[in-house]
Every structure is written in C-alpha cells, then in structure tokens.
Amino acid sequence: MFTKQLREARENDGGFTLIELLIVIVVLGVLAGIVVFGVSKFRGDSALAACQAEMKTVQTAEEAYFAKNNAYTDNATLFSGGYIKTQSTTNYTVTATPGTGARPTTYAVHGVLADNTTCGADLTQ
C-alpha cells in the first residue's frame, strides 16, 4: 500500500523542466550584469565627489596657513604643519601650488583623478 502511494506521488509530481531552470538562470545572469555595470558608474561618481571635496579642504588649509604665516605654501608644508591629514589617494591627487616670490600671496589647487581627468576647475586665490 505504501509503495502504491509513493508511485502515485511521483507520477503527479509537477517539478520544473530543464528549459524552465535555464531560463531562470539566464534572467538572473542578465540582472547581475546590469547591477555590476550600474555600481561601477557610482564608484566613478564617488571618486569625483571625493576629489572635489579634497580640493575644498586643501583650499581651506591654504587659507588657514595664510592667516597664520601671511603666505601660501605647498602640500608638503600643509601636511607637515597638520593643516591636512593626507597628501593623496589611489583614486585622485590634489596639489597646492603657491605663487612666486618669497612670501607668495596667491595659490592654485589642482585635482586629478586616477584616469588623468581633472576634478573640476582649479581653485585659486
């Protein structure tokens, strides 16, 4: 009697066919591909935003240095003086260049992403 019930259950089993499973796998693969390419776009945008924010930080550091020393300076001096915490990252580089003369009264802050595109217009004084 038990084997008869088991045989009937197997005959009425409505499992998935191989084609149905393959279609589901293909759809999931397409969706995963869309997500991967979408996320890489956000990474590029975040590197640009971080570079622009760092440019503003270096600009503020230049102004703080000028308020104390009556002259602008470069990244190395800003870093060693504690005005900025880092000099660059693997995603972008921000440089501060003082003007000419013994006590420069101008500066330029320039940002470059890892792919050599600029972060935006240079910040100058």
Estimated radius of gyration: 30 Å
Run of helices and strands: HHHEEE
Strand ordering within the main sheet: 1-2-3
Pairing-aware structural class of the strands and helices? Answer: alpha+beta
**Spans where pLDDT lies below 50 across 5 or more residues:** none
Oligomer: single chain
Distance between the amino and carboxyl termini? 94 Å
Task: Write structural notes for this entry.
The chain has 125 residues and is α+β, with helices and mostly antiparallel strands. The chain is 54% helix and 13% strand. The protein has 3 helices and 3 strands. Strands 1-2-3 form a 3-stranded antiparallel sheet, with helices on one face. Strand 1 and strand 2 form a beta hairpin. It is rod-shaped and about 105 Å long. 18% of the residues are buried. The model has no long low-confidence stretch (mean pLDDT 83).
Summarize the structure.
The chain is α+β, with helices and mostly antiparallel strands and 125 residues long. Helices cover 54% and strands 13% of the residues.
